[in-house]
Amino acid sequence: MSWCCTYSLLPPSTRLQVTDLSCSWQLKNAHQMLPSLGKKPEKQKKNKMKQFYGFQTPSTIVAYYGLKTPPYKLDALEPYMSKRTLEMHWGAHHRAYVEGLNKQLANDDILYGYTMDELVKVTYNNGNPLPEFNNAAQVWNHDFFWESMQPGGGGMAELGVLQQIEKDFGSFTHFKEKFIESAFTLFGSGWVWLVLKREEKRLAIVKTSNAITPLVWDDIPIICLDMWEHAYYLDYKNDREKYVNAFMDHLVSWNSAMARMARAEAFVNLGEPKIPIA
Ligand SMILES: [Fe+2]
């Protein structure tokens, strides 16, 4: 879960946002806070800056998003997803999305101070994505994907998630068949999701292409599966069927799904009297 802190003592354009423990800090637009230095000699400028900053060197502030670590060791999903795949998928691909996003944001004065969820929605721009959208969405999708799996996962859903699946898909077997079929029939790179439809108050399986995430349609994701080739090629080559079955049988985290469902129910109220309305 991302976290952030905002320093309201600074003007809005210089607010800081830190969304992960691994983030770095810089001070952006700090020069705008400086007294006007005009064309004063260099020595006077340095003295003025010293009065303003004290003994600290001025720097630049930008929003930084960190690379979150999966909630298990990189070899914990073996033999169904290898350490080698995690090192490449998380350590190289996911990292590249984070670094690409930070690079884009460093040159942006408007996309500033958002949580990652907000940034994804804002940069989707009602279906006309801004250049930052792909990186932002891929960072969010991958964070969600790592937490959609667990060592010793897979098998049958339990408790509330199982009840809801049975209610909306008829049976767990039917849900599983539909999820696997959606993964097989996804053309090109993309994602398969189990989501809670906010308006209809029911679960659904949706496919998205490239970096698109159901967040942008206001669906509430419960589980996702990465169907980009980089997710499975090292372990399964082009055998997508084997990869998807391994995910369903040995990797998917129904514990995460239960926690996400509980949170989602609090927002949409599925009709259970015991569920509070947010
Ligand atoms: Fe991926």
UniProtKB/TrEMBL annotation:
Keywords: Chloroplast, Iron, Metal-binding, Oxidoreductase, Plastid, Transit peptide. GO terms for cellular component: chloroplast nucleoid. It is an enzyme of class 1 (oxidoreductase). Its cofactor is Fe cation. Residues 161-259 form the Manganese/iron superoxide dismutase C-terminal domain. It is found in: Plastid, Chloroplast. Gene3D superfamilies: Fe,Mn superoxide dismutase (SOD) domain (1.10.287.990), Iron/manganese superoxide dismutase, C-terminal domain (3.55.40.20). Its EC number is 1.15.1.1. GO terms for molecular function: metal ion binding; superoxide dismutase activity. It comes from the Eukaryota. InterPro entries: Mn/Fe_SOD, Mn/Fe_SOD_BS, Mn/Fe_SOD_C, Mn/Fe_SOD_N, Mn/Fe_SOD_N_sf, SOD_C_sf. Residues 65-149 form the Manganese/iron superoxide dismutase N-terminal domain. Belongs to the iron/manganese superoxide dismutase family. This is superoxide dismutase. It comes from Manihot esculenta (Cassava).
